[in-house]
Design brief:
Number of helices: 6
Structural class: alpha/beta
Shape: globular
Radius of gyration: 16 Å
Mean pLDDT: 82
CATH superfamily: HUPs
Strand order of the largest sheet: 3-2-1-4-5
Strand content: 15-25%
CATH architecture: 3-Layer(aba) Sandwich
Helix content: 40-55%
Number of domains: 1
Length: 156
């Protein structure tokens, strides 16, 4: 099956870089369009949190800047590899649901996500976006582990 609409869920981590690299290779081979999505969970309003509110505001700004930088890198890679692509930045409390909704709305025929090499204990305690999407999706899903060669080339 040739994929024509590939959606990639990313953050600023190395597994996302590997997922994006594989999606771009697939897209360039099959002349597919790529949509890269970054979903951030909303944060509470820092007003009324006192001195801690300032730290929260700074942390939120840093997370948003990293997400925007990851999406900008994706745009650069589209141009570099001659792939038709677009980026989307969303805010939603339920990241896996937001990814799945966006994939359905955009009519993706392949969803690509990176995954960390977590232990069973880490997965039980903190969960995994990729695992949550895997359990709920009905569309083809490619889960890509982080790889060193992709990290060096694309994380710059």
């Amino acid at each position: 099956m040739a994929y024509k609409r590939i959606m990639v869920g990313i953050d600023d981590g190395f597994p996302a870089v590997s997922a994006l690299a594989d999606a771009i290779v697939l897209a360039s081979l099959g002349q597919a369009a790529v949509r890269v999505i970054s979903v951030l969970s909303p944060v509470p309003d820092p007003i009324g949190l006192g001195a801690g509110g300032e730290n929260l505001t700074r942390a939120v700004r840093l997370v948003r800047e990293k997400a925007e930088a990851a999406l900008a890198r994706a745009q650069d890679l589209f141009v570099l590899y001659g792939v038709v692509g677009e980026t989307v930045h969303l805010t939603d409390e339920d990241v896996p649901t937001a990814i799945l909704k966006e994939a359905c709305t955009w009519k993706a025929d392949l969803l690509v996500l990176g995954t960390h090499s977590q232990s069973t204990w880490e997965r039980l305690v903190i969960g995994s976006t990729a695992t949550a999407v895997l359990r709920r999706t009905t569309m083809p899903l490619l889960i890509v582990p982080a790889r060193n060669e992709n990290m060096k080339e694309l994380k710059r």
